[in-house]
Specification:
By secondary structure, this protein is mostly beta strands. It is about 5% helix and about 45% strand. It is globular and about 55 Å long.
């Protein structure tokens, strides 16, 4: 895995796919292109890298973290540092934590995070507050929402803010063997304080003729997928 990282860094850039840091400030003409990124045969995310002179430049941070590495950038000397994440025993985590497969109403804990899925339902309305009724979000024509209601607890401290959001704990859902990212959240689900156990809701929009086969949760700090609940 370390050899893979070294090879990748030669063609990566730090931050997001909108800005590149180079050894010089010479301007170049580059194009944006859409790709589906796969690691070890698993499709993870759709990206839009810069393509210049036949080489695709991917964001260092996003790719390195997907591979199980931490990334740090020192602005003063423009140094990008990529290093392995350490687990509680001090040994290096090489890829990702094996997921715990749980059932609805079954609590599971991985490291400093615990989850319990209370309910998974489909709807054409997502209330602005979990459990509320009346006003809320409605899907576009031909689509529906899947709403995941779950309990979550962590004592992890966010690095650059005071609280977590519920969608930071939900990695993705699987629809017809494909991963769907980008969970939405509303109301009080947008704020989870460290050390607080809270019932929250997140939702995804998907075509009304499709159903979800599984829901996958993650550690909000390392972004490792840590557990899943099968629906079908």
């Amino acid at each position: 895995m370390k050899k893979m990282i070294i090879g990748l860094v030669a063609g990566l850039m730090i931050g997001t796919a909108g800005t590149a840091l180079a050894a010089t400030t010479q301007p170049v003409q580059a194009l944006f292109a859409k790709f589906n990124l796969q690691i070890e045969g698993k499709e993870l995310v759709e990206i839009e890298p810069l393509v210049y002179d036949g080489t695709s430049y991917l964001p260092v941070r996003e790719v390195a973290e997907l591979l199980g590495y931490d990334v740090d950038y020192e602005h003063s000397n423009r140094l990008i540092t990529i290093q392995g994440v350490e687990n509680m025993n001090g040994s290096e985590v090489q890829n990702k934590i094996n997921e715990t497969v749980a059932s609805i109403n079954e609590e599971f804990r991985v490291g400093n995070v615990s989850f319990k899925v209370n309910d998974i339902s489909y709807s054409t309305l997502v209330p602005y507050q979990p459990g509320g009724d009346g006003a809320g979000f409605t899907p576009t024509q031909g689509e529906k929402f899947i709403i995941i209601n779950f309990d979550v607890y962590t004592d992890l401290e966010p690095e650059s803010k005071f609280s977590w959001s519920a969608n930071e704990f939900l990695s993705h859902i699987v629809v017809q063997g494909k991963n769907l990212y980008g969970a939405g959240t509303t109301g009080e689900s947008a704020r989870i304080n460290p050390g607080e156990k809270k019932t929250v809701e997140v939702f995804f929009s998907l075509p009304e003729d499709l159903d979800v086969s599984s829901v996958h949760f993650r550690d909000p700090k390392s972004f490792y997928d840590v557990g899943s609940v099968n629906i079908q």
